[in-house]
Specification:
Blueprint (H helix, E strand, L loop, with lengths): L1 H12 L1 H10 L20 H6 L14 E5 L9 E5 L3 H14 L22
Antiparallel strand pairs: 1-2
Helix pairs in contact: 1-2
Amino acid sequence: MQLRRMLQHCASQVPYYRRLFHRIGFDPALVRQVSDLTALPTLDKETVRLNLQDLLAENIPASKRVYYTTGGTMGKTLGFWGLREAGWRERAFMETQWMRVGFHRDRLRAMLKGKESLFGFC
């Protein structure tokens, strides 16, 4: 089960999840169905802010990470780390979402994202 493997990786390589799983007695090896995940608390923005370094997998070198920030439309930006070579996944996700609302890759579009722009709102 792919989900179980990912949870086991978190337990062994991500300090935040290692501590959390130990504290609440969660064993990823025992996960058999999605409902087993109800034992896990939701990861909210404030938890990410407070535990940013401890949410990094110890087996991923810094050279393979890239730092992202949200636009802060809800009042406060959120920074988090992603995999440098995973940009194609984000692109595939975005194109799928665009197609759902009628946009296609061959049409002109403007996309504002990333660091703050000259206009102060991107």
